[in-house]
Write a structure and sequence with these properties.
This protein has 404 residues and is mainly beta. 15% of the residues lie in helices and 41% in strands. It is built from 6 helices and 16 strands. The chain is globular. It starts with 49 loop residues before the first helix and ends in a 12-residue tail after the last helix. It comes from Agrococcus baldri. It holds the Pfam family SUFBD_core. This is Iron-regulated ABC transporter permease protein SufD.
Length: 404
């Protein structure tokens, strides 16, 4: 849907409010004014931290040149020839598949004059992962970005976007995986606690191509990373993984969308999160759409959350929309609860102290995602981060009956 075809997502008080019923109906526009200012009533904002995200709703000129609020350390990309000259609003491939779905992404599109363009050359295999480090210079500096990641036909590689420091940061990520390419994209949110980060990831996967998309969020006051993946080509495949650990006062959110459009596509979504401390909050909304032409689809999505202390809250909402009956399989699941009493009893019965038993349960729960990364350096770093989070939350609440 183009900007001219879009109807406003935000209605005035004089108009009847009709909520969007399915993820596929969400309007798009390149004009921030089409969306209005979110109130929290909108389907895509109703579980978000509107108050802290509010500075990102302001359509204003942000820093440019040396004053930009994010330090982009791209030495690895440059040395390996993976960085393409910046692309303006009307320069392909920017905008080939990306369509802003909310006011933040529309502002980021408008205010980012030149996109950062990363390209894996056709037919080349990148043996080692490449890491781009994005370091915030201060939470009082509003920055907007549009990043294009393009895996050319037959290319293979892993790209890591590592976010740290303090920032007020709106980010669009446009991911294009062309025919026969295999891309792993890992976005790590390792921000300081005063950061507010909202990011929209939109990906398309072509014929015979594969995308592993991972969102890892440990830091930030608010980290709202919403990824969508369109399996467009014949035999296109995609895995969407997520890992989060929310501490006191943190809000970590992902609204995930997987769209099976092509024939014989395979998709899997698995997000896991742990929460500890008063006011710790996680939000996961997972939508899977199997289109009317997506025959022989195989799809599954699951979200699991482990609540470690009182005062933490996890919202988990899976949705599955099927428009054809000719599929190989489809399903979804969601679970939120405390420690598994049987697991703790098993470990304690073998002489393991309760505190250590709890630590082992949490690590075992989250490491399923960590081990899917496939990059030993990052896996080790995340394992250490999990240990550090657990040390911060020493004195975990006793195991109780599971509850959402």
């Amino acid at each position: 849907m183009t900007a001219t075809e879009t109807t406003p997502a935000h209605l005035t008080s004089a108009e009847p409010f009709v909520p969007i019923q399915t993820r596929s109906e969400r309007p798009t526009s390149f004009d921030p004014a089409e969306f209005g200012t979110p109130t929290g009533r909108e389907v895509n904002w109703r579980l978000s931290d509107i108050k802290r995200l509010a500075p990102l709703f302001v359509d204003e000129e942000t820093e440019t040149g040396d004053d930009i609020g994010i330090d982009y350390q791209l030495g690895e990309l440059e040395s390996r020839g993976l960085l393409v000259e910046s692309t303006g609003h009307d320069t392909a491939p920017r905008g080939e598949i990306f369509r802003p779905e909310d006011v933040v992404s529309a502002i980021a599109w408008k205010r980012c004059a030149n996109a950062l363009h990363i390209r894996l050359p056709e037919g080349q295999v990148q043996e080692e992962p490449v890491i781009a480090r994005l370091i915030g210079k201060g939470a009082d500096r509003h920055s907007n970005a549009h990043i294009v990641i393009e895996a050319m036909p037959g290319s293979v590689g892993t790209i890591v976007l590592h976010h740290s420091g303090s920032a007020l940061y709106a980010q669009n990520l446009e991911i294009i995986v062309r025919e026969g390419a295999r891309l792993t994209l890992i976005s790590v949110q390792d921000w300081e606690d005063d950061t507010v980060h909202a990011s929209s990831h939109q990906a398309v996967v072509g014929e015979g191509a594969y995308l592993k998309h991972m969102v890892v969020s440990f830091g930030g006051g608010v980290a709202r990373v919403n990824p969508s993946m369109r399996l467009a080509g014949l035999h296109a495949e995609g895995d969407m993984y997520g890992l989060s650990f929310a501490d006191s006062g943190q809000h970590i959110e992902s609204q995930v969308f997987m769209f099976h459009e092509g024939v014989s596509t395979r998709g899997n979504v698995l997000y896991k999160g742990a929460l500890q401390g008063t006011g710790a909050r996680s939000v996961w909304i997972g939508d899977v759409l199997i289109g009317n032409g997506a025959t022989d689809t195989d799809s599954y999505e699951k979200n699991q959350n482990l609540v470690l202390t009182d005062g933490a809250r996890a919202d988990s909402i899976p949705n599955l929309e099927i428009q054809t009956g000719d599929i190989a399989g489809a399903g979804h699941a969601s679970a939120t609860g405390r420690f598994d009493d049987e697991q703790l009893f098993y470990l304690e019965s073998r002489g393991i102290e309760e505190e250590e038993a709890r630590r082992l349960v949490v690590i075992g729960f989250l490491m399923e995602i960590v081990q899917k990364i496939g990059v030993p350096e990052i896996e080790q770093r995340l394992a250490e981060a999990i240990e550090e989070e657990l040390r911060r939350g020493a004195g975990l609440a006793p195991a109780t009956k599971a509850g959402a």
